[in-house]
Design a protein that fits this description.
It is a single chain. By secondary structure, the chain is α/β, with parallel strands linked by helices. Helices cover 33% and strands 14% of the residues. It has helices spanning 19-31, 49-52, 65-68, 75-84, 99-107, 120-129, 154-157; strands spanning 3-6, 35-40, 61-64, 92-96, 111-114. The radius of gyration is 14 Å and the shape is globular. The protein starts with a strand and ends in a 5-residue tail after the last helix.
């Protein structure tokens, strides 16, 4: 797998999320050359600024449905983010807390992983990307802060609906 695409609410932030572990895994994979993106059904208003601030420091691309004009689970939303990553959908893993969105990603050709609040999704990602979670560091890459410490994060702006 060459790409990892994550939902935000219910995966990176909110009930059942583990931002430290998932954030560390994303940073680890990105350092290994895996292309990364956030794909959220956020409307993209000014309250989503913190999400855009994650593009660069944490992920390669941030795609918000309100700005892209297409929302999950429409197949074009997954194809769109894959194109932005310069990958085919079949080269990407998509993680979401809603089964309808995981099924949509799978129908578009991505590998879908359901994040249900347990650590099973992390274990599945470790298998898909050939990573030993025990070897993943604290999420800092060089001088970069872990994603959850990026300026304007959810602790400052409040969680958005997805």
């Amino acid at each position: 797998m060459r790409g990892l695409v994550l939902d935000v609410g219910g995966v990176l932030v909110g009930p059942g999320s583990d931002p430290e572990t998932l954030g560390s895994l994303v940073c680890h994979l990105r350092a290994r050359g895996v292309r990364t993106a956030l794909l959220s059904n956020d409307p993209g208003r000014p309250s989503a600024r913190w999400l855009h601030d994650l593009e660069g420091p944490f992920v390669d691309r941030v795609v918000l449905s309100g700005e892209a004009g297409v929302a999950k689970p429409h197949p074009e939303s997954y194809a769109f983010v894959a194109r932005l990553l310069e990958l085919e959908p079949g080269e990407c893993v998509f993680v979401d807390d809603l089964l309808v969105n995981v099924r949509g990603a799978a129908a578009a050709g991505m590998v879908g992983v359901h994040h249900d609040g347990s650590h099973e999704a992390l274990a599945e990602l470790a298998v898909l990307f050939g990573v030993d979670l025990e070897q993943v560091d604290d999420g800092a890459v060089g001088d970069a802060e872990p994603w959850w410490r990026c300026r304007g994060g959810p602790e400052l702006e409040g969680e958005t609906e997805h």
